[in-house]
Amino acid sequence: MTTVTESAGPGAPPDTESFLSVRDLRVRFSTEDGTVRAVDGLSFDLARGRTLGVVGESGSGKSVTGLSVLGLHDRRTTEVTGRIVLDGQEVTGAGEKELRRLRGNKAAMVFQDSLTALSPYHTVGEQIAEPYRRHTGASRREARRRAVEMLGRVGIPHPRLRADDYPHQFSGGMRQRAMIAMALVCDPDLLIADEPTTALDVTVQAQILDLLGDLQREFGSAIVLITHDLGVVAETADEVLVMYAGRAVERGSAEQVLRSPRHPYTWGLLSSVPRLDGDVAEDLVPIPGSPPSLLDPPTGCPFHPRCAFTGEVGGTRCADERPEPPHGRGAACHLTADRQRALFVERISDGHSPD
């Protein structure tokens, strides 16, 4: 089964065969300046044992989506609508008691900044053991043994000794491994990894990605990999969801999206990545402008103020009419599929897009 299905439209019912099914997810934050529309009508499916890469610039709604799946938003300032179904259980609208049972046990998250996500007042071993005790009722001794086992499993040397260290005594890569150990201590069926390799050197990054792959094969977990790094996506993802301004603008298999992208925003992301076989003197091609404010997003296609191809559509359609979200393989773009392919071929011939 593929991760993204043809039926994953906003009006479609949750896919009963998928482990995670999201339909028409909308997340609104109330602020002093107004309402931030952080996620705006997102739908997708994810099967067990599969990895979905969610990519896009900062502020596109990636992390907000991951937090929504675990019900981690502050209900006093956040409005979450739509449907999130995890292993047959409704997440949206679930009570805090139900969500606490789900978090860590059924689904877990590796947060973006391991130094701030870990408490400086407790040892690493204590922080890994605590969710295991909470969800399994294990004794302190059993939980301690499990924490040491998980530290060893994620590649921490001398795990029995290092379990008594505090987070500041770990390197960045070791803290990230400890975060993964904490997320996996209860063998969750879904792992949401939010920028798990940020600020790590390439050697440690490769080790973390290999670790996630090994653990997925061992536990059969589904993984949502949130990242802005297309190299990470190419290495690990089965399917790709490209987000912009809180919306899905393209989706498909990793090979389809990375080799034959259909949305101008995806072209821009790929064009800004250096190529190993490219001319070192050739400048990268950045996406002009900045992501829009989600307090007041553009009308029509949210990418149109930065898009170089609005003239290909003609008139003011890009500014006035919102494209349909992609269902299955596709892109939320007013360009016809034939024109998308033709323009992408032109960009390849000009050397602007990596293969």
From TrEMBL:
Record keyword Ribosomal protein present: no
Annotated organism of origin: Streptomyces taklimakanensis
A Gene Ontology term for the protein's cellular component: plasma membrane
Subcellular location: Cell membrane
GO molecular function annotation: ATP binding; ATP hydrolysis activity
Protein name: ATP-binding cassette domain-containing protein
GO biological process, one term: peptide transport
UniProt entry keywords in alphabetical sequence: ATP-binding, Cell membrane, Membrane, Nucleotide-binding, Transport
PANTHER family membership: DIPEPTIDE TRANSPORT ATP-BINDING PROTEIN DPPD, OLIGOPEPTIDE TRANSPORT ATP-BINDING PROTEIN APPD
Domain of life from the UniProt record: Bacteria
Membrane topology field: Peripheral membrane protein
Pfam annotation, one family: ABC_tran
Family: Belongs to the ABC transporter superfamily.
